[in-house]
Write a structure and sequence with these properties.
Blueprint: H1 11-31, H2 49-59, H3 61-64, H4 66-69, H5 78-94, H6 100-118, H7 123-131
Length: about 140
């Protein structure tokens, strides 16, 4: 698939992607058994994991395909995972933060470093500018 210059699929390709998604969903719906009501049991019948996944994908098709229709939505969530990894590593190593204030400070510092990295700025220079009283204007208003 080719992308338009603005990072969004052209309308005809969006419609084709949506139609393909629907065809795949219909195929899976046809081969995946519907939950069967068990005699004597109350409530909804239990669905398989595959059926539950299909139902979630179909129900949230706009979110699932958002990367194809909106330029600002990345194809993967790797950036979010990358941002969480150091926090989880610190949690594994030390068990936890000793105070809520310490956790807040760590999150603010790491968030600033992460934003600096994402804006292709030099981390050392940006941290130095904070201590000199001249933080980058790119982070104002946040």
């Amino acid at each position: 698939m080719t992308q338009a210059n603005d990072g969004v699929l052209p309308k005809p390709m969006q419609q084709r992607a949506l139609a393909l998604f629907e065809r795949i969903a219909q195929y899976v719906d046809a081969i995946e058994p519907q939950p069967q009501k068990i005699e004597g049991k109350k409530g909804k019948p239990k669905a398989t994991k595959d059926r539950n996944l299909l139902n979630r994908l179909v129900k949230r098709r706009e979110v699932v395909l958002a990367f194809a229709f909106h330029q600002e939505v990345p194809f993967t969530n790797n950036l979010a995972k990358r941002d969480l990894r150091p926090i989880k590593t610190k949690q594994k190593v030390s068990g936890c933060f000793r105070t809520e204030a310490g956790a807040d400070q760590h999150a603010r510092i790491y968030g600033y470093i992460s934003s600096t990295r994402k804006n292709n700025l030099n981390i050392f220079n940006e941290l130095k500018s904070i201590f000199e009283g001249n933080p980058s204007t790119i982070f104002e208003g946040g």
